[in-house]
Design a protein that fits this description.
The structure holds 2 protein chains of 2 kinds. Helix content of chain A is 66%, strand content 0%. By secondary structure, chain A is mainly alpha-helical. Chain A has one domain (7-101). Chain A is elongated and about 45 Å long. Chain A starts with 14 loop residues before the first helix and ends in a 7-residue tail after the last helix. Chain B is an alpha+beta fold. Chain B has 2 domains: 3-72, no CATH class; 97-294, Beta Barrel (Barwin-like endoglucanases), CATH 2.40.40. In chain B, 35% of the residues lie in helices and 15% in strands. Chain B has helices spanning 3-27, 29-37, 45-59, 76-84, 95-106, 116-130, 194-201, 220-225, 262-269; strands at 134-135, 137-138, 141-142, 147-152, 203-206, 229-234, 240-248, 258-260, 275-283, 293-294. In chain B, a hairpin with a 2-residue loop joins strand 2 (137-138) and strand 3. Chain B is globular. The chains are: A mainly alpha, B alpha+beta. Chains A and B meet through helix 1, helix 2 and helix 3 of A and helix 1, helix 2 and helix 3 of B.
């Protein structure tokens, strides 16, 4: 059990260093963390719902809002999706990491 | 620091975050509506979860998780009895070995928020072995988790103009470009007391920003957490430090739950220790008698003749 069922799948190396370097105050740093956090949550939920057949959306959301920390949600998703949802989330986060690290470069 | 680069990154990140929210709302209007009706903001999921875990941990009714078997907290005598089987008080062992054995027996394999029952037993074990009154909850305050990963932090600027060279002998981690969440430790170098030098030296970082009531209980919580003493114990080797909270973080996406100054990290795990599982409890020290720094609790009286002069 973690704070959110997908926490252990979301580690974005290198971004914290970049944010610390680009923040002029602690408040600003926490504001940037908040944006990243919001982005991660939207992208992970998006990934889950994208892959989960629509008839299970309500049930999943109900379980999720009652126990967002419950790691058993991954088993539920795996079962209903029929794919390794941890792998799907990791792929999504890897993509997001790349986007965030290149956000202020011209390579995007 | 380039302020244009700062504002560019901030604006782009904010925009990206807003775009993700709008895209989600458009793609999944029913899901968005459902969460809205339940009063859940996706950006504040962590606070929502912390609230649920906290309520569940207190009543022993964590949803969908294995029951803790406790609807009420155990009494001190029950705790003492239950840890008697873990720590053999008659066997002559190093206290640190006792503590490591107890952790191996009591802690889950993966770091996670602990139930109050688990925390109470650990408080007792820590008190018995180290004599430090460590508390998971103090004056009604409790962190989102007391068992998590700690990561290495940089030195903090203690006063305007403070530089890394003043923080020897640990230079490797560098000095944070910005200030800690509680600002400078002193207004000027002249005002920096020895106590404040020790506070920066032995500082810890906790995720106050994700506390469910952090915003609604200001400025009380800000003041309560400022330089609050905590005990950090490396659960793998039993090394323990009393530290003072001096910054907020780390960000959840780092995969860590706490941070430690270069000195704290060095004592907990050596010069190459960058991340590891720890317990972090408040220190109940109303008279400010417990010093910051390493907790040395292996002073045992050896039987006469056990030390042989060579």
């Amino acid at each position: 059990m973690s704070m959110l069922f997908f926490d252990h799948l979301v580690v974005i190396n290198g971004l914290d260093k970049k944010i610390k370097k680009l923040s002029s105050s602690n408040d600003e740093m926490q504001e940037l963390w908040k944006y990243v956090e919001e982005l991660i949550h939207h992208r992970v939920l998006d990934c889950c719902l994208d892959n989960l057949p629509e008839e299970h959306h309500s049930e999943f959301l109900d379980k999720f809002h009652k126990a967002p920390h419950d790691i058993g949600l991954l088993d539920y998703l795996n079962q209903k999706i029929g794919k390794d949802v941890e792998k799907l989330i990791k792929i999504e986060i890897k993509k997001l990491r790349k986007e965030l690290l290149l956000l202020d470069s011209n390579k995007m | 620091m380039n302020t244009t680069a700062q504002s560019n990154f901030r604006d782009l990140l904010k925009l990206k975050s807003i775009e993700a929210r709008l895209a989600f709302e458009k793609k999944y209007p029913k899901a968005h509506q459902f969460l809205l009706e339940k009063g859940i903001e996706i950006g504040k999921l962590r606070e929502h979860s912390a609230k649920l875990i906290s309520a569940g941990a207190l009543t022993g009714t964590l949803l969908l998780s294995p029951p803790t078997g406790a609807s009420q907290l155990p009494s001190p005598s029950e705790i003492s009895k239950s840890i008697d089987g873990i720590i053999d008080r008659n066997e002559k062992k190093l206290p640190q070995k006792d503590l490591i054995d107890a952790f191996n027996f009591m802690l889950p394999k993966e770091v996670r928020p602990l139930s109050r029952d688990e925390e109470k037993k650990l408080e007792q074990v820590i008190k018995d072995t180290t004599d430090i009154p460590a508390k998971a909850s103090l004056e009604g305050e409790h962190l989102n988790t007391t068992y998590g990963y700690i990561g290495a932090e940089q030195h903090l600027k203690r006063y305007p103009g403070d530089i890394l060279e003043n923080h020897g002998p640990y230079y490797k981690e560098g000095i944070a470009p910005g200030l800690g969440a509680w600002g400078y430790f002193a207004k000027s170098k002249d005002k920096l007391t020895l106590d404040l030098v020790e506070t920066e030296k032995w500082y810890a970082v906790v995720q106050t920003l994700y506390l469910p009531d952090w915003n609604s209980r200001q400025p009380y919580l800000h003041n309560w957490y400022k330089h609050r003493k905590v005990m950090v114990v490396n659960t793998k080797n039993g090394n323990a430090v009393v530290a003072a909270i001096a910054d907020a973080g780390p960000a959840a996406f780092t995969g860590k739950h706490f941070g430690g100054s270069p000195e704290v990290m060095e004592y907990l795990g050596g010069s190459r220790y960058k991340k590891g599982a720890v317990l972090l409890f408040f220190v109940d020290d109303p008279e400010n008698k417990i010093k910051l720094g390493p907790v040395k609790y292996n002073d045992v009286e050896l039987p006469e003749g056990s030390l042989i002069q060579i």
